[in-house]
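Dear support,

I submitted the protein below through the web form. The confirmation email said the job was done, but the results page showed an empty box. After a refresh the structure appeared. I'm attaching both so you can tell me whether what I see now is the final result or a partial one.
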Amino acid sequence: MPLLFHNRLSRLRSALRQARASALLISHRPNIFYLSGFTGDNALLVAGGGRPILFTDPRFDTQAAEECRGSHSRILITRKPLPQAAGEYLARLPRSATTMFEEDRLTVAQLRAARTPARGGCRWKPVQGLVEALREVKDAEELARMRAAARIASQVMVRAIKRAHAGIRETDLAAEIEFQMRKHGAEGPSFETIVASGHRAALPHGRASSKRLKEKDLVVLDLGVILRGYCSDLTRTIHIGRASSEVRRWYQVVLEAQTAARKAVRAGTPASNVDEAVRSVLRREGLERYFIHSTGHGLGIEVHERPSLRLRQSTALQAGSVVTIEPGVYFPGRGGIRIEDDVLVLPGGSETLTSAPRELIEV
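What the results page shows now:
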């Protein structure tokens, strides 16, 4: 673990040198965790040429010492507002120094508090996505955690499908899913579990309601777990009772589109090519207009991170990144179908991390 943190910080220092900056004030909690291991909900991190400096309050004294041991971060416990404490530290930098800050993560009030004690000291420069770009390619430890998170999600999905039946409430099924996550060792869900049945299956992010599953319902089950700080994300669609020939056709088209996209994933491929692999299948079958979101997104410490698999996204996929592949079709008033897996990008192809059955299941 110390070597992994060392490598991450070395890459960050290289990025700072290229940006001609001396330090980065980090306020986004996933980025703080990535560089220090700290999971507390009140912290700022200053990273630059030397040891990272973690600012937190007395409530997290013991936790910070335990979690940051492997990262060699220096911990500063303060009763002052953290932006003020970080600003006082940064005020010691030479006038020629530049401190970058995460402009999309730091509030105006926090920036003002940090700059006030540093007035006349270093210069301030906004930046977006500097650490997120480093996080896109996962190291060996991250991949081990994500494989395990994907394995738990797959196991929970299989149990959820067995538990689904006509008459059960969506909320009761969602509660059972999240109980099974904990029982299998997860820290919790990586997002609010989705159980959407019947006409509600046409809602891509349909939260579980008091509606009961009934015969002839399509049911979208979308779940993910957090394990040791890393997320998984998995969707399956099942049918209550015997599906009609029309529903069977829709399902097979979505499955074919998802398979085509998974096969298109490899290092160097533009993200838009993966999205087009889905759309070409749906277009051929006259269903593209019912596909109302992107094909997928990056996955890691956050359930949505870089890269994005969507139209006109020319960024090339990198070996070591993990993405979701989740095409779907949605018919307002009737229902919807989505199939999602977590996929690791490899130099010559990909590895699908999730393993729940993909064929249409009728319960």
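Response: this is the final, complete result; the empty box was a page-load delay. The chain has two domains: 2-135, 140-362.
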